[in-house]
Design goal:
Blueprint: H1 3-6, H2 26-30, E1 41-42, E2 49-50, E3 58-62, H3 63-68, H4 74-80, E4 84-88, E5 94-98, E6 101-103, E7 115-118, E8 121-123, E9 136-143, H5 147-150, E10 157-163, E11 171-179, E12 183-194, E13 198-209, E14 213-214, E15 221-222, E16 225-239, E17 242-256, E18 262-263, E19 298-313, E20 318-335, E21 345-367, E22 370-391, H6 393-401, H7 414-421, E23 432-454, E24 459-479, E25 502-523, E26 526-537, E27 540-542, E28 550-552, E29 555-568, E30 573-593, E31 596-619, E32 622-635, E33 651-663, E34 666-677, E35 680-681, E36 707-708, E37 711-722, E38 727-734, E39 742-746, E40 756-759, E41 764-772
Parallel strand pairs: 7-10
Antiparallel strand pairs: 1-2, 3-9, 4-5, 5-6, 7-8, 9-10, 11-12, 11-41, 12-13, 13-16, 14-15, 16-17, 17-19, 18-40, 19-20, 20-21, 21-22, 22-23, 23-24, 24-25, 25-26, 26-29, 27-28, 29-30, 30-31, 31-32, 32-33, 33-34, 34-37, 35-36, 37-38, 38-41, 39-40
């Protein structure tokens, strides 16, 4: 989560037991015998293709492989995928980064750079993008501009998640697990065929885990998990020419404790005695709390997603596909974002939204030398956000003057702050509240087409484009519900609109994106490809409480990529390698403008890199895989000239395997995975001291520490199942070396010289048991 914008303006989680019932999906039948999904069938180009035949950079994983690596969390997928990073400080605020470009903007009119799709339907709001993974058919991660294929939200890539569809066999799966940090999981899936034309599949999941940072008063933990998820899939195939698939997902989260913001400027103090109650290590216990009228720290969210896909095969050449989507979510979170037990700043944020979409696409094949698709779509969304920021004005008086920072590292309790102020303390409020309400209604129309020409048996050319028109209607209201601040006469960090009025604005825009490339077949199992693409993030109107609205110019990405894909040794050796170059213009980020956090045009940026993936089945039951990504992304103009992109390690690799052997009438399996990434910054200013200067200088940040050094994590899974595969047991461990690492740093406090730090997952172990009928 970009706390700078939002607040100022398991690791042994339970892995699914194998679905022993036969699967008839394309991805399952295409997977190799080891379960590695390196050569599965994907639909990135709106048609089923073997991944080694798709002329774009793509990583894909089927359900069997996700289970093998313990992939019940999407960030486990990112750990083994070159060029893909997920910054997971919590489910409310995930950051998705592909080749160095991050999307985690929570504003209602936000334009994402990395698209997330659930069963073909775009997830446009980040707060609803990270749900529970279970009963998954496959996950596809596509890199580079994919606007032609998936729309403008795929400026720099897309992540597509596909649930399992009903099969033709009756099956029941029951799974459960327990682990450290009071981990508990229970899951059930039923597949029920009804006659020859109808089938349904439904499942439910419950998952709980304590957080990795304890409350020093013993009352609980921070960043705990308490999730429920429900899945339904229906299939109707009345004839060979027509099919309809309906998939519905419903996720519920409700946890206490909030995000473990931890100050490394001030020690945690017991507010009653003033004694030190901990240290400044980001992983050790602390006490965080809200105050005033703000609710205690918590996270609560509901997400409903529905996708209906109808396919008509008109003849041997033409087919028609309709994808209808609906998505609704409501998410709230509160927390203590100064990272200390002292009452300074706290927040309560709620985001909600609903969207409906329709895509109609005509696919054609064997039309002379051509195949491809042409279509159109319409999308409408209504999104809202409420941000409340609460402050103790007495503490803020010392913080804004830079006085409080001079008491580091011990700091002061609220009682000591009041004593230091003396009679002046009575002129300030014990609690002041800023509130900002924003809304957006978005309507978008798209026309798109993509055509492949098979010039010879070995050479094909492809080209595609998309035209997008949209209109946005925006609202902004800034309030001080408890009256104006005694410090400023208005708001503190969030500015009120004049007389609390609702400001309105609208903007219409259109953009054109496209791609072109070629694929050359060296042999039936070795392909070369090259592709050039243009992606755009359209102009955005930004309303400001006290200044004229700002039109943020369109951001453009131009990308060139070339690579090789191969499938050798009868399909036992599968891999790819690619090189790429990116060039950006009008790169939009966040920074201080006249003392206020706002969108900043960082100008030009570029990136170049290399990625490779390999999977090798040595013998039946023994396989290995590996990946490596190098991405050199840098800004080339303005204040950030020479800086790295945030959440973007230059180097990233993973290696793993699956080793099976017969044992006592069954099979025992061992699947280790090790992933590593190099140094990574959490903000585009790279914590440079010359960019940390504040007024007054007394609260400038003088320490370069808002980054994560290179680190690796080791995971492993040991399983046993009898020959009939009716049951299984497993032991799973993640971050087995217990590497302490950060998932975010800086946040709101960074603007006052008191940055906060958020700890990542610790070592987790769990045991699981499953039955299948």
């Amino acid at each position: 989560m970009n706390k700078n914008l939002l607040l100022l303006s398991s690791a042994l989680s339970f892995v699914s037991v194998p679905a022993f019932a036969a699967q008839d999906t394309a991805s399952d039948t295409a997977a190799d015998a080891s379960g590695n999904a390196a050569d599965i069938v994907v639909t990135a180009q709106k048609r089923e293709q073997r991944i080694t035949d798709v002329p774009i950079s793509i990583s894909a994983y089927n359900g069997a492989f996700l289970e093998q690596i313990g992939g019940t969390e999407l960030n486990k997928v990112s750990a083994i995928t070159p060029g893909f990073v997920i910054q997971l400080q919590d489910k409310f605020a995930p950051g998705f980064s592909v080749r160095g470009i991050t999307s985690n903007d929570f504003s209602p009119q936000s334009e994402q750079r990395v698209a997330v799709f659930q069963d073909g339907v775009a997830v446009t709001q980040t707060a609803s993008a990270y749900g529970e993974l279970f009963d998954i058919d496959r996950i596809e991660v596509e890199k580079g501009p994919q606007s032609t294929l998936h729309g403008r939200s795929a400026l720099n890539g897309g992540v597509s998640i596909f649930q399992k569809r009903p099969t033709d066999d009756f099956s029941v799966e029951v799974k459960g697990g327990i682990g450290n940090y009071d981990y508990f999981s229970a899951q059930g899936v039923v597949n029920l065929p009804i006659g020859d034309t109808l089938g349904i599949r439904f499942g439910a999941l419950k998952r709980k885990r304590d957080g990795f940072v304890k409350d020093s008063d013993g009352s609980g933990t921070y960043n705990a998990v308490n999730a429920e998820a429900y899945r339904f899939a229906g299939k109707w195939e009345p004839s060979e020419a027509f099919s309809f698939n309906l998939i519905a997902t419903y996720d519920v989260d409700h946890t206490k404790g909030g995000v473990p913001f931890k100050s490394r400027t001030f020690l945690p103090l017991d507010q009653k005695t003033g004694t030190v109650a901990g240290d400044m290590k980001f992983w050790t216990p602390t006490h965080l709390d809200t105050f005033g009228t703000l609710p205690d720290p918590y996270f609560k969210r509901k997400i409903l997603g529905i996708s209906g896909t109808a396919d008509w095969r008109l003849n041997d050449t033409l087919s028609l596909t309709s994808i209808t989507g609906y998505r609704w979510y409501d998410a709230c979170q509160s927390g203590d974002n100064d990272g200390t037990p002292t009452n300074l700043i706290a927040y309560h944020q709620c985001n909600d939204g609903k969207q409906i979409s329709e895509e109609l696409r005509l696919n054609f094949s064997d039309l002379g030398i051509f195949e491809g698709f042409v279509g159109g779509s319409v999308f409408h969304a209504s999104n809202g956000m409420s941000m409340e920021m609460g402050y103790d004005e007495r503490a803020m008086a010392l913080l804004l003057s830079g006085t409080l920072q001079q008491f580091a590292p011990k700091g002061l309790t609220n009682a000591q702050i009041n004593a230091l102020l003396g009679p002046a303390a009575g002129t300030f409020k014990a609690f002041h509240l800023d509130q900002q309400l924003t809304g957006a209604k978005i309507t978008t129309f798209d026309l798109f087409a993509d055509v492949t020409a098979h010039l010879t048996d070995r050479l094909e050319l492809f080209a595609g484009g998309r035209v997008t028109w949209d209109r946005k209607k925006l609202t902004l209201q800034g309030l001080t519900p408890l009256g104006p601040s005694s410090l400023t006469g208005g708001g503190l960090l969030l500015k009120p609109t004049p007389d609390g009025a609702v400001l309105r604005g609208s903007n219409s825009s259109s953009i054109v994106t496209g791609r072109a490339g070629l694929r050359f077949t060296l042999s039936p199992n070795v392909n070369l490809y090259a592709v050039y693409g243009i992606g755009k993030r359209p102009e955005v109107l930004q309303l400001n409480p006290t200044t004229p609205s700002q039109l943020i110019p369109a951001e453009t990405l131009k990308s060139g990529e070339a690579g090789i894909k191969f499938r050798l040794l009868g399909g036992r050796l599968v891999g790819d390698a690619s090189v790429f170059y990116y060039k950006y213009s009008n790169f939009q980020t966040l920074g201080l403008r006249n003392g206020i956090v706002a969108t900043v045009n960082a100008g030009k940026a570029d990136a170049y890199g290399f990625e490779t993936q390999l999977s090798y089945e040595i013998t039946p039951g023994i396989s290995i895989f590996g990946s490596y990504g190098f991405n050199h992304g840098r800004f080339r103009a303005g204040l950030y000239d020479g800086n790295r992109f945030r959440n973007s390690p230059d180097h990233k690799f993973a290696i793993g395997g699956n080793f099976e052997a017969p044992l006592a009438g069954g099979t025992i399996g061992f699947a280790p995975t090790y992933s590593w990434q190099s140094k990574m910054f959490f903000f585009e200013d790279n914590d440079r001291l010359d960019l940390q200067q504040r007024v007054p200088a007394a609260y400038s940040d003088r320490v370069v520490d808002e980054y994560q050094n290179g680190f690796g994590q080791l995971s492993a899974r040991i399983t046993f199942a009898p020959e009939n595969k009716r049951w299984s047991v497993a032991l799973i461990g993640d971050n087995l070396t217990d590497k302490k690492h950060l998932v975010d740093a800086g946040n709101t406090g960074d603007y006052f010289g008191i940055p906060t730090f958020i700890a990542g997952s610790r070592r987790t172990v769990r045991a699981e048991f499953g039955l299948a009928f």
